[in-house]
Every structure is written in C-alpha cells, then in structure tokens.
Amino acid sequence: MFFIKKVVSSYNSIRLKGIERFMKHPEETQLSQFRHLIKQGKNTSWGKEFDYSSIKTFSEYQQRVPLMNYEKFTPYIIRLRQGEKNLLWPGEIKWFAKSSGTTNSKSKFIPISKESLVNCHFKGGHDVFAIYNNRFPNTKLYSGRTLTLGGSHKINNFNIKHRTFYGDLSAILIENLPIWTNFYRTPRRKIALMSEWEQKMNLITQTAIRKNVTALMGVPSWFLALLRHILNQTGKKNLLEIWPNLELFIHGGVSFKPYRSQYKDLIPTENMHYMETYNASEGFFGIQDDFATKDMLLMLDYGIFYEFLPLSAVHSENPKTLSISEVEEGIDYAIIISTNGGLWRYMIGDTIRFTSLNPYKIIISGRTRHYINAFGEELIIDNAEIALEKACLETGAVIKEYTAAPIYMTIKEKGAHQWLIEFEKEPKIMAKFTKILDEALKEQNSDYEAKRYKCITLDLPIVVPARQNLFFEWLKKRNKLGGQNKIPRLANERDFMEELLILNEKL
User: Fold this and answer.
1) Cβ contact 475:211 at 8 Å
2) In this predicted model, what pLDDT tens digit does every residue of 114-138 receive, in sequence order?
3) Percent of the chain predicted with pLDDT > 70
4) How many helices (H) and strands (E) does the chain have?
5) Chain segment 127-184, per-residue pLDDT in tens
6) Rounded to an integer, what distance in angstroms lies between the CA atom of residue 239 and that of residue 153?
7) Other beta carbons less than 10 A from residue 270's beta carbon
8) How many CA atoms lie within 13 A of 270 on its CB side?
9) Cα 215 to the chain's mean position, in Å?
10) Which residues fall within 8 angstroms of residue 113, CB to CB, at 6 or more apart?
11) What's the N-to-C CA distance of the chain in angstroms?
12) What sign has the CA pseudo-torsion 40, 44, 49, 54?
C-alpha cells in the first residue's frame, strides 16, 4: 500500500507540471495534438480517403474534412463493430461506449481505442485526484475508498468472434482499471458491473456501509437515489453518520445546480468538496480546478484537438469553426473534436461557454439540439438551470427531476412552455414559483423576454407537479435505469412530455 501511495504521489507531481505547461502554452499544445492525430490517422482508411498525408495546417484540415455527427459516422461505426481494423484509428477497436442518447431515442456506439482509454479517460481520472490533492495537501482521501456507481457492458453482437464489447463508459473504465485501484474503490468490480439496477443498489449498500468511504464519484441524479437508499436501509439521518471521513464528490454528466441543496442536506458539513468533471463517452474534456468557482479547466493534452462553432452558426450552410486561439468569452460554442479514439471533426452536441481565456476555462451551457426554440426563444439548459435555481431559492422548493417542452399555438390559444417537475419539496404557492421562474428566464434570455412581452407570443409557463418517482418509473419502463442515462431536460417536440404526462396520471 505504501508503494502504491508513493507511485501515485510521484505521478501527481509529474502531471501537475504537465497541466501547468499546457495552461501556459495552450496554442502550442493544441497544435502538437493536431499534428499527432494527423500523423496517426494518415494510414487509416479514413486518413487515406481525405489524404491526411498532405494536410499540414488547420486551414487545410477544415477545407478537406467535413464536419461530422453520429449519423454521418454510423456506416463507419457499423464496420468497426464488425471487426474492421485501421478504419478510423490504427488497430482494432475492442470497446464501444453506448450512449444513452439524450437528444434522441437512438443509442450511439462511440469507439474507445486503447489510446483514448489510457491517454484521455484514465489520464483525466488521474488528473482529478492530482488537482484535488494539490488544492488540499492535508487530505485524507487516500486513507479510504471512493464509492463509484458503474454501469454494465455486453458482448458486441456484431462481432462475437473477436470478443469486442459495448456498454456504459463507466463500465468500460471499471473493467479496464489497473488492479491496484481496487485498494481505493468500492464496490468490487462484479457488483459495479451488474446490469440490474435495483439489485445492484442493494448490494452496493451492503458493501459500502462497511467501508471507510472518503469520496463519491458519479452522476448526481443516480447517486442521489443510491444515497437515499443507503440512509433508508441504515436508518441514519445523514451520510456523515455512516462515513465520517467523507470529503469529496466528483460529479458530472448532468448539471449539479438542481441537486446542490439536497447534497448539502445529506452531507451537512462545510468540509465537503464538490468537484465537477466533463467526461463524456467521446472524451474527457474538463476538470474543475478552483473550488471558489464553478467553471472547469479545459484539458488540452489528452489527444483531443478542439474546434469551436458559434451556436448562432450551427445551422449555417458552410459554418466556419474556430481554433482555441480565436474564441471569446461569453459566447456559446458547439464543441467539435478530433480524437485518439478515431472521431474526426465530430460535433458531440454539447455547447460550452468560455469564462476565462488565460487559462482556458469553460462551463457546459447546453446542447445544440437540447433546447426549446418553438417560438424563436432559443431557450437553452443554462437558462433553465439558473432560473429554476432562483425559483427554488426564493420559494424554498427543492427539485428532484424535471423536463420541459413547448405547448404549440392554436387558432384560439397562444403558445407556452410546459414544465413537468418532480419536487423533493414543493413550493407552498405554485403560482409564486411559476412567476419567479418566468421572470428569471426573462433575465437570462432576451429572446424569451421578447416573446413573453405582453403575452403576445408566449403565455406564462405552465408548471405541472409530477408524482414521486415518475421519472424513475419512466426510465425503468424504457429499460434505461442506471448512472449513464439522463432525463431529457428541454425538448423542442412533445414526445417525451406526452409519455410522461400519461404516466403521471397512472397510480
């Protein structure tokens, strides 16, 4: 154990120097990543198709290679899953991260190469602890275990002969972690990789309550369900009665804003730290390195080359992307990546906003498709989260889950936004909550404010309280229980909303 701690400490020291280096030289770091990716990709089928051997500059790359999304990549993904080698990246792809499909109902299978696993995802995980340890040198984190909430994986039906697999990213990471990490995490691998959510939750509870858990790592919404289950099973009032040395929650996947107050109730201490990460199936992008702010450091040396497309130009016919040296603060950008997993000029669907250019820091502001724009209001998740947080703060409400969708205009009626909210604690006066939500949305979004002016286009929002566990039952019905699956927060169509409203009426 002492030897492992020494190795970890040595690695942390090396990585902190590496992080400091790319913070000081971001453009040079990104240029180095670009050149490495082009060199590695030039002998693949994709690289030959676009003549990577002759690409020397970012400008040539922009002109030669089209912007891609998952639908355009699908034929290549199918070939990869069938075992074709050297297609998008050198060698064979053994793992595919199955996305929950937050913007549509389709599942996505994101290729995970050996390089992306080690030099991106694992490197990001190591850096989280290196950064935290540097901020809090007296931490007792390593004296206990990190409780993780993994997913599951399956043999790839496309290619059983070659034993390739698909599953949640968390499951892929757990399956491939070095054996020494078992000294620092819980539950054991067999339980963490179980697919049946409710059985897994019971077994994790039985295991974790006997451990000295010092950190939690997972998606806030699903972790909240597990933690409540643990309290119910133990009869304890809060988590510190079970794990007195708990000091860190590493979270990501969904916004933490709706859950912050609930976690403070579960872990009532000022010594608890909350650290956001931006680790998607497509790559590890950001880590919160300053606990006084809520933004994340953009990680520039993980084998990812970034491009940024202003959200206003996403639907343009010939959009021009920007390199990192060309971005500005306060503008929403669609993030586009080329990676050591074989994704080339891939638009992942997230939008980010720079809060600092020295060093480069970001917040996740929404989705390119995960928004409401039925009336020209262009409401994004960031607007919604801020407005909901304000409404909760001023009414004492606590939100568990939510989704929103437009109610379209008719000949006789104006349009509106319908919010289906499962409250942990309902506001005493729903009309007051609705009014504050509406006013806060106006403050955040001038287009929304214009459409709400004198109710000419949009009427006041309609808030529908959801019965308890509605969203859990809806995900269970769709066979999407587990930490990698998310509630669609904003939708421009009413498909999800109608399903949920019907289920909400059933007892």
Assistant:
1) no
2) 999 999 999 999 999 999 999 999 9
3) 92
4) 17, 20
5) 999 999 999 999 999 999 999 987 666 666 665 566 778 888 888 898 888 888 888 8
6) 30
7) 6
8) 0
9) 19
10) 89, 91, 93, 340, 341, 342
11) 53
12) positive
